[in-house]
UniProtKB/TrEMBL annotation, chain A:
Organism for this UniProt entry: Arcicella rosea
Domain 4Fe-4S ferredoxin-type residue range list: 300-329, 364-395
Keyword field: 4Fe-4S, Iron, Iron-sulfur, Membrane, Metal-binding, Oxidoreductase, Transmembrane, Transmembrane helix
PROSITE patterns attached to this UniProt entry: 4FE4S_FER_1 (PS00198), 4FE4S_FER_2 (PS51379)
Alphabetical list of Gene3D superfamilies matching this protein: Alpha-helical ferredoxin, Transmembrane di-heme cytochromes, Chain C
GO CC field: plasma membrane
PANTHER family xref list: IRON-SULFUR-BINDING OXIDOREDUCTASE FADF-RELATED, IRON-SULFUR-BINDING OXIDOREDUCTASE FADF-RELATED-RELATED
This protein's name: Heterodisulfide reductase subunit C
Residues passing through the membrane, by range: 6-21, 65-85, 105-130, 151-173, 218-236
From TrEMBL, chain B:
GO cellular component terms attached to this protein's record: plasma membrane
Source organism of the structure: Arcicella rosea
Keywords for the protein's UniProt record, in alphabetical order: 4Fe-4S, Iron, Iron-sulfur, Metal-binding, Oxidoreductase
Residue span(s) of domain Cysteine-rich: 24-109, 150-237
Name used for this protein in its record: Fe-S oxidoreductase
Highest taxon above the source species: Bacteria
Gene Ontology MF terms: 4 iron, 4 sulfur cluster binding; metal ion binding; oxidoreductase activity
UniProt KW Lipid metabolism keyword: no
């Protein structure tokens, strides 16, 4: 009987590992579709940024209450994984509480600590469900934010429910385990009662031993299969931020937020136009696309940003355009980018790794001109993001495509452009009048 | 106070006499052409004269940094402007630039280096703070600003874009005024609605104009003066005050105007 459980466990673990690694490959491959951008400079500053922003969750504490609540789940996630290691080893080796004899009294301390964390995670998940569904925090409402309709709302609630089930399984399993220890079942090492689960013991106190063992095994399997399933689910979910927050903050933009990256391909042409450089006879005649129309025109970091976004909506709730009813939502920009990436990923998967043209693009099929035009480039979205995602960088690259490739600008912008060309000022004033103000200095 | 003969020397004049200024005052298009913002240019020029800073302007040789074109997506036009400006600046051997426009400031400071233009660029809020700290600007104190409520509206291109939050505030504090913050300020400051090329187009469809949303923050403080440090913010906040029909009780001023007033 024991050996069957071990075989089943190894099979489940192997299967999960296989599917998860396939998903990781697709995610990696689609991120690599992006154009090159060097973010390898200044490793010590990058490491510090990652430790501060991702590991230390600094920006989460801008909103202190949610910051603390989120920190409980985060700490639970990091630390309870130590216990998962034991569960995995127990599953493979057919042992029970493998670390208990090795760690002695420290084991009981650890499990008590994990139980407190688990109870904390459970409570916070309930609070988060209430915030989403009962007190209806504005930035999380699909009725107000169209990008949340459908899967995103289900996704968010699924994750919270899944965590509640996992934590309940963990705590009730420990309660039943303690009862089995007390009844002298030799498979269950006497490690004592634990701080939280001991409160659950009365529920099971009049169960017979077989029922208790069945419950304990079921809860154990539910917990570990739940974790394996969750790990796979995460790769499809907004919850991917639990892993990607770390590399994503490491590769943060370290420059001033106001700086727009230069386009060297334009610099060369401008210098030729101004007679500062000669056309390069050997230059490749391949015409690059100016700006970004689809995901492969964006940089790999923009694409990693998209996979890292957890749809919290801090960006959108601080966006002046969104606050005043415009179509633009920075969160939607990130979600659209990811949706398009996932679509391209599926395209690659069914076509043997080669992208087959589908007639769609990020600009047009997902993001509209009206959204792009509403942006004031104020950087509020970039400032707010707890993991340093930049929706603005994507918006500005799409604008470049719109203007330079499609010559699609509002008439007033075209007027501004022509004023700049003829008068070197965005308004229609003569260059010769530029210094007239000095006559008024008296 | 003794009468000062105000001078606005150009780089060309300086060069012809073999002189070189301590700073180039980059006026910007709004500072040159916009009737309201010309007053700010004049105020800043007067401060420079009073403090005795050796400065010069480019005059008719100045042209737009290209910022609105770049933000709209017209990289070609931006780079044309930038390349021509860099030629002019380098031709005069300019090392240090001070400007009252956060958009010019951001572009000159952060974006010209990639095109070969390397200068020390300072926004006038920082420059004025430095003059106050160095004791070069002496304020009467206890004057007309004492106890007067002033609120400061953060420009996105100074604040979030370049992390300048304290310099403008310390200039206002030097005036001995009662500085009151809006509910959204500093990193959380709400845009006036004019950045990213919005100054030069109609807003997209929505249910409110951004400057109205912002002026409500400002009016809620009860301040009678709204201080700004950006020509676009100046336009948007002034329009907001007009929209709320508060022109008589609430005034919008640039830091330089307030400081000049405090120096009298």
């Amino acid at each position: 009987m024991q050996i069957i459980q071990q075989i089943l466990f190894v099979a489940a673990f192997g299967l999960a590992a296989y599917f998860i690694s396939k998903r990781i490959q697709i995610i990696k491959k689609t991120i690599q579709l992006g154009r090159a951008e060097d973010r390898s400079d200044n490793p010590s500053e990058r490491l510090k940024t990652m430790l501060r922003i991702a590991f230390g969750q600094k920006k989460m504490f801008d909103r202190p209450i949610v910051g603390i609540l989120h920190f409980v789940i985060y700490a639970g996630f990091l630390l309870i994984n130590v216990e998962v290691l034991e569960i995995v080893l127990d599953g493979i080796l057919g042992t029970h509480r493998l670390f208990a004899p090795v760690l002695g009294s420290f084991y009981a301390f650890l499990i008590n600590f994990f139980e407190i964390l688990a109870a904390g995670v459970l409570l916070v998940c309930i609070v988060f469900l209430i915030r989403r569904n009962i007190t209806k925090v504005e930035r999380l409402q699909a009725t107000r934010h169209r990008e949340l309709n459908g899967f995103p709302v289900i996704d968010a609630n699924t994750i919270l429910f899944a965590e509640i089930i996992l934590m309940t399984a963990l705590l009730s399993m420990n309660a039943v385990d303690s009862i089995l220890q007390e009844r002298g079942n030799e498979h269950y090492h006497p490690v004592g009662s634990f701080v939280i689960s001991s409160f659950l013991k009365p529920i099971f106190s009049n169960w017979n031993e077989t029922a208790l063992i069945i419950y304990e095994r079921t809860a154990w399997w539910l917990h570990i299969l739940g974790i394996l399933g969750f790990a796979l689910y995460v790769t499809y979910s907004k919850h991917l931020h639990i892993f990607l927050a770390f590399p994503n903050t490491y590769f943060s933009n370290l420059k001033a937020k106001g700086e727009m990256p230069n386009m060297p391909e334009v610099t060369k042409e401008v210098q030729i136009m101004l007679g500062l450089a000669q056309p390069d006879a050997e230059a490749s005649t391949e015409i690059a696309r100016f700006g970004a129309k689809d995901i492969k025109d964006l940089s790999w970091k923009n694409l990693m940003d998209a996979y890292s976004c957890t749809e919290c909506g801090r960006c959108t709730s601080s966006c002046p355009a969104n606050l005043t009813g415009k179509a633009l939502s920075p969160r939607k920009i990130m979600m659209d980018t990811r949706d398009r990436l996932e679509e391209v990923g599926r395209n690659l998967a069914v076509n043997g790794g080669i992208f087959v043209e589908d007639g769609k693009a990020l600009y047009g099929s997902y993001i509209t001109s009206e959204e792009l035009r509403a942006c004031t480039t104020c950087n509020a979205c970039v400032q707010e993001c707890p993991i340093n995602i930049s929706p603005l960088d994507i918006i500005l690259q799409l604008r470049r495509y719109q203007i330079m490739e499609e010559s699609d600008a509002p008439a007033s912008w075209n007027a501004m452009f022509s004023n700049l060309e003829t008068n070197q000022a965005p308004w229609k004033f003569a260059t010769s009048d530029r210094f007239n103000w000095a006559n008024e200095v008296k | 106070m003794q009468e000062i003969e105000y001078k606005v020397p150009t780089m060309a004049e300086m060069m012809s006499t073999g002189e070189s200024p301590e700073i180039l005052f980059w006026v910007g298009c709004a500072g040159s052409f916009d009737d309201r913002y010309k007053k700010v240019t004049i105020a800043f020029t007067k401060i420079l004269n009073q403090v005795g800073i050796k400065f010069a302007v480019l005059g008719t040789e100045e042209s737009c940094t290209g910022d609105p074109a770049r933000r709209a997506g017209n990289e070609f036009l931006f780079q044309m402007q930038a390349t021509m400006n860099i030629q002019v600046l380098d031709g005069y051997g300019v090392k240090k630039i001070v400007t009252a426009c956060p958009h010019c400031f951001n572009t000159l400071k952060n974006e010209y280096p990639a095109l070969g233009g390397n200068y020390e660029v300072i926004h006038h809020s920082t420059f004025l703070q430095q003059l106050i700290d160095a004791g070069k600007i002496k304020l009467q104190g206890g004057g007309e600003f004492k106890g007067k409520k002033i609120t400061y509206h953060d420009s996105c291109y100074l604040g979030r874009a370049n992390d300048i939050y304290e310099a403008p505030r310390s200039v206002l504090e030097a005036l001995d005024a009662d500085l009151v913050e809006m509910k959204r300020c500093k990193t959380k400051g709400l845009c006036c609605g004019a950045g990213g090329g919005q100054m030069f187009k109609e807003p997209e469809k929505g249910n409110k104009d951004i400057n109205i949303e912002r002026i409500e923050d400002a009016l809620a403080t009860g301040a009678s003066t709204i201080a700004v440090a950006c020509p676009f913010c100046m336009v948007m906040m002034s329009d907001g005050v007009k929209n709320k029909e508060k022109e008589d009780s609430v005034k919008v001023y640039d830091l330089a105007e307030l400081l000049l007033e405090g120096m009298k």
